[in-house]
Fold:
Amino acid sequence: MESHIFGRSTAGSLPVAAQGDGCYIIDTAGKRYFDGSGGAAVSCLGHSDADVTAAIKGQVDRIAFAHTGFFTSEPAEELADLLVEHAPEGIERVYLVSGGSEAVEAAIKLARQYFLEIGQDRYRVIARRQSYHGNTLGALAAGGNEWRRRQFAPMLVETSHISPCYEYRGREDGESAFDYGQRVANELEAEIERLGPESVLAFIAEPVVGATAGAVPPVEGYFKRVREICDKYGILLILDEVMCGMGRTGTLFACEQEGVSPDIVTIAKGLGAGYQPVGAMLCTGKIYDAIAAGSGFFQHGHTYMGHPVATAASRAVVKAILGRGLLPKVRDQGARLKAELENAFGQHPNVGDIRGRGLFLGMEFVEDRETKAPFEPKRGIAKSLKKHAFEAGLICYPMSGTIDGARGDHVLLAPPFIIDDAQIDEVVGKLDTAIRAVF
Structure:
């Protein structure tokens, strides 16, 4: 029967997901797929968590929806309390939305309104090349993913993009990792000076870069220098943890490992673990107080923000991450998965880099390991890897354009936090099957 769904692609038909079983998705034909990327780093608890589904059912029985223009709700209040209790220093308020793009839009608009409330007409945002911050027009403009930006470029608000912190590609011979990080961080100061400090309101960055570059972690000291520069010019630091946050890198907030606190942080994906569409923008008390002492109204909003069922699910998810010892498990199993990837592919002639943090790992593919030369885009390496892995029963997240939006290929792995040792072997084995088929 012909489908009336307007899907992501008009080519071909997809299997129908019928059931979830821990780390697996089962289609209507009975085939089991190991969810090695958590969809898009979403399904951190797997697909059949009894506590989360019970929380959803219980909330639906009480009240499913109450508009936040009229009411708050118990699960929303408790989720906000829980997040602030474990948030970076200074973060005091939680703005609940339905996904990552909404969270980033809210963050950028709040940054703009904050400066207006304190009497400064700042409007420029600085971001990084090879970043991704969402698909709505404001978030897309902030992002540095050229492939996603290209056709919408005339509609995007002007945003400056500086170099990413991408050690594998950017660090020069003889340059220490620390010095490299300081060099690319200092590009932020140069860009602020070029634009005029009085016009710049925020710098936005992913602590560990996700889909666009494949789990690229910063070098030590990079974000501390970024924080210093933002403080020097009175600019807000927005950290986008939509993909890398909520335990994915081994701490609840990824920025904990950098020793910095943002002014605004965005979360989604692992916040709801896929059980409900949800996201959040968190900000400092200083920003909230400026609104409260000024207009008293954040000129923004969505119908489903603070949704009781979504926040009940999220509250259960965050309690599970914190209460079941999953953060140390992410660190331990992440280290084991990375070691197994290095054992299997560390000397492969077409694997240039294996990187990441916790259960957020990436492999970059090259035509030549010595020169780091990428494959020609027409080879379609990422697309082919996805196809062969899926046929082998592994869901992973390959992407092309790793280097500059056109060249380079990588695969991103972000399995559920409940992955066991045998399943790590399964992921590596199925990935090996795909890599052998492609190369």
Remarks:
- Residues 326-345 form the longest helix (20 residues).
